[in-house]
């Protein structure tokens, strides 16, 4: 793996002292009908701290979602290992919650019921009053208290995504896995929701891995940005450390020299890894 070649040393990768999620030599291939195995991920190594916010950027088809699904336990690695808190990940679990771009809410349940269902399913030791309180707390956290009794088709895309995030957070996962969570939203709603997610994360620190195609979003939100090389046989090309203090003010960091350099470095990397097929 290469690391950044910035003259400013602060951009160099700093591994978290205590690896919470540890990915070692991860390989994932799929069988093809005629050409043997197609290798999607080829030897991914990554360590994430328990309160780190990591973004993953790479061209379409390089294997970002595959990586997230393996961490989520929805797919199996072909070889290598993925451990969370020292335990090998073999199947989905309530310690890792996924948030998808397409919301994935149950349309026949209200906003409140969508969150309640997950809480009932996972927090089996909590009594009824505690579960109601957790649901209400998370509805309030994403400003959805007044929409609690609406159905998904009665609310906007941004609100649906907030339900998905509240549902994921309500069961108190150790790690949040987000696959382009703001991808389907208009720019204004996206900006607001990014801020809300950061506010929540700053108050309830947990490990986050977020896939995005947006370099500005990655810089604004993350501690480190993982840049993937193109597939097939994709790998981690570089890991960039984001040097800005939190809480971040988007308009302030955007005007800094470091922001400009970091953004250009990421964009140049992506340009460099642009295949002729794209
Ligand atoms: N179940 C599967 N069976 C066979 N091939 C698959 C399967 N799932 C994914 N792939 C292939 O693996 C590669 C990586 O797919 P993946 O969805 O992980 O990429 P991605 O980087 O998330 O793309 P995008 O940014 O477009 O969402 C693609 O070539 C895809 O066709």
TrEMBL record:
The membrane topology noted for this protein in its Swiss-Prot or TrEMBL record is:
Peripheral membrane protein
Q: Does the keyword Secreted apply?
A: no
Coiled-coil ranges per UniProt: none
Q: Where is the ABC transporter domain?
A: 21-255
User: Cross-referenced SMART domains, in alphabetical order?
Assistant: AAA
Residue span of the signal peptide, if any?
none
Q: Name one GO molecular function term.
A: ATP binding
**PROSITE patterns from the UniProt entry:** ABC_TRANSPORTER_1, ABC_TRANSPORTER_2
Cell compartments where the protein resides:
Cell inner membrane
Keywords of the record, alphabetical order, are: ATP-binding, Cell membrane, Membrane, Nucleotide-binding, Translocase, Transport
Family under the similarity heading: Belongs to the ABC transporter superfamily. Nitrate/nitrite/cyanate uptake transporter (NitT) (TC 3.A.1.16) family.
* The protein's name in its UniProt record: ATP-binding cassette domain-containing protein
Its organism's taxonomic lineage begins at: Bacteria, Bacillati, Cyanobacteriota, Cyanophyceae, Nostocales
């Amino acid at each position: 793996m290469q690391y950044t070649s910035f003259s400013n040393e602060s951009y160099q990768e700093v591994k978290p002292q205590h690896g919470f999620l540890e990915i070692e030599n991860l390989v994932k291939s799929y069988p093809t009908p005629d050409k043997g195995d197609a290798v999607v991920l080829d030897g991914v190594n990554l360590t994430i701290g328990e309160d780190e916010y990591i973004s993953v950027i790479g061209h379409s088809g390089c294997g970002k979602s595959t990586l997230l699904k393996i961490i989520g336990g929805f797919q199996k690695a072909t070889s290598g290992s993925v451990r969370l808190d020292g335990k090998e990940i073999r199947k989905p679990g309530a310690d890792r919650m996924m948030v998808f771009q397409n919301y994935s809410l149950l349309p026949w349940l209200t906003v409140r019921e969508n969150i309640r269902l997950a809480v009932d399913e996972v927090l089996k030791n909590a009594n009824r009053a505690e579960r109601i309180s957790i649901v209400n707390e998370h509805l309030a956290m994403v400003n959805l208290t007044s929409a609690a009794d609406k159905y998904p088709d009665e609310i906007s895309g941004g609100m649906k995504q907030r339900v998905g995030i509240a549902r994921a957070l309500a069961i108190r996962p150790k790690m949040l896995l987000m696959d382009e969570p703001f991808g389907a939203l208009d720019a204004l709603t996206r900006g607001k929701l990014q801020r809300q997610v950061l506010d929540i994360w700053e108050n309830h620190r947990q490990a986050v891995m977020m896939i995005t195609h947006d370099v500005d979003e990655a810089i604004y939100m993350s501690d480190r940005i993982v840049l993937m090389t193109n597939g097939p046989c994709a790998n981690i090309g570089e890991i960039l450390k984001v040097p800005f203090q939190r809480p971040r003010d988007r308009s302030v960091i955007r005007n800094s020299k470091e922001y400009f350099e970091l953004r250009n470095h990421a964009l140049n990397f992506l340009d460099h890894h642009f295949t002729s097929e794209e």
